[in-house]
């Protein structure tokens, strides 16, 4: 039986740091893509520049759709 001894030459720390940066970047990109998708779905939403205002507009739109569905039941 052969036993190997492993030495961490700092690569593990570098890999964790790189992964953390990469993961954050990918997460931001996904959020941006989904926000753009929502902007395209909600009429007039693409005119709003700040995220809070845009999310409020999306919530209002979804609530109005929900009320329309409840009325038609």
TrEMBL record:
Transmembrane segments: none annotated. Residues 15-65 form the BHLH domain. InterPro entries: bHLH_dom (IPR011598), bHLH_ZIP_TF (IPR024097), HLH_DNA-bd_sf (IPR036638). GO terms for cellular component: nucleus. GO terms for molecular function: DNA-binding transcription factor activity; GTP binding; GTPase activity; protein dimerization activity. It is found in: Nucleus. Keywords: Nucleus, Transcription, Transcription regulation. The keyword Nucleus applies. The keyword Manganese does not apply. This is BHLH domain-containing protein.
């Amino acid at each position: 039986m052969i036993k190997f001894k492993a030495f961490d030459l700092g690569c593990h720390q570098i890999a964790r740091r790189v992964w953390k940066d990469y993961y954050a970047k990918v997460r931001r990109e996904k959020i941006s893509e989904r926000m753009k998708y929502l902007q395209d779905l909600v009429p007039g939403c693409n005119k709003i520049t700040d995220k809070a205002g845009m999310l409020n507009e999306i919530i209002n739109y979804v609530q109005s759709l929900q009320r329309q569905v409840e009325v038609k039941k």
